[in-house]
Specification:
51% of the residues lie in helices and 13% in strands. The protein is of the alpha+beta class and 258 residues long. A 5-stranded mixed beta sheet has the order 3-2-1-5-4. The protein starts with a helix and ends in a 10-residue tail after the last helix.
Length: 258
């Protein structure tokens, strides 16, 4: 984990979500191995070994609160991924999700209709497998228009507002919530990840949006949308709940499709 710390020391000044080290939990041989910062906060030390039913048959990199470790948000990573220095930026990307959890993301998520609806179905994986209407002709047409601005780099805040307004008036409520949740949660992490990439001289993480679309479309649109919002109001860097509502709401009163 020394290489994670080295990268963190290089970039922790560039964004509030990177100011501290978060726990890193390694999955290996049916156990969680929890590492957390020491008393000084400048390096990791082993804290706890806990048996888990999660089978790490492949690469795992995610973030969640550890119910056996004071509900602290932690990066959770498979052992083989942690050993690759090329994944260190991805670990810091997950730090941003830890920051979100620490600053109200779970409470925000629990307010959403989509969360309540999917929990009735015991679908805890809805953030990944929700059946968003990516093949809908209207969604494709409006996304193509916005993606043209993104490709040439001539996008502005109003482009995202128009897109958002069109989607809110057209989509069903849970579909719209899913779009904004992904754009906020993953888009913000990608926004910060690209700040890191700029700082260390690496190519930005970006996608050219071409149908057929999938969840990645919201990461790309969200990161660029957030960039324009923070340019106009730097306080949104710190107040990520206000950022969510800024992305979610409209300047006028609209109603959801039903």
């Amino acid at each position: 984990m020394e290489s994670v710390i080295r990268l963190h020391n290089m970039v922790k000044h560039i964004h509030v979500s990177l100011e501290k080290l978060y726990p890193i939990t390694v999955i290996n041989d049916g156990y969680f191995f929890v590492y957390d910062k020491n008393e000084i906060g400048d390096e990791y030390k082993f804290m706890r070994k806990v048996e888990t039913s999660i089978v790490a048959s492949g690469d795992i990199l995610t973030t969640f609160n550890l119910n056996f470790y004071d509900l602290k948000p932690s990066v959770v990573i498979s052992k083989n991924m942690l050993g690759n220095p090329g994944n260190n930026i991805l670990v810091l990307h997950e730090f941003v999700h830890c920051f979100q959890l620490e600053h109200g993301a779970l409470g925000l998520k629990n307010e959403l209709l989509i969360q309540k609806q999917e929990m009735v179905k015991n679908n805890y994986n809805w953030e990944v497998d929700f059946p968003f209407p990516y093949k809908n002709a209207y969604f494709i047409d409006r996304t193509k228009i916005l993606s043209n601005y993104l490709v040439n780099g001539k996008y502005k805040h109003d482009d995202f507002v128009i897109y958002r307004n069109c989607m809110r008036t057209y989509l069903h409520k849970v579909d719209y919530e899913y779009m904004i949740w992904q754009s906020w949660k993953e888009g913000f992490a990608r926004y910060v990840e690209n700040l890191i990439r700029k700082e260390v001289g690496l190519r930005l993480n970006a996608n050219i949006l071409i149908p057929p679309y999938d969840r990645v479309v919201f990461l790309e649109i969200g990161s660029k949308y957030i960039e324009t919002l923070i340019e106009s109001d730097e306080e949104l860097n710190h107040n990520i709940i206000a950022l969510f509502y800024k992305m979610f709401t409209l300047d006028e009163i609209w109603t959801y499709a039903i």
